Amino acid sequence: MTETTAQQEEKAYSRRINRDTLSDVNKGIRNFIVLGKRYRDPAYSARKLADDIHTNTRYLSAAIRMYYGCNFSELVNKLRVDEAKEMLANPLCTMTIEDISISSGFANRQSFYSAFERYTGVKPKEYRKNMALKDNDNAFELLSFD
Question: pTM for the whole thing?
Answer without folding.
Answer: 0.81
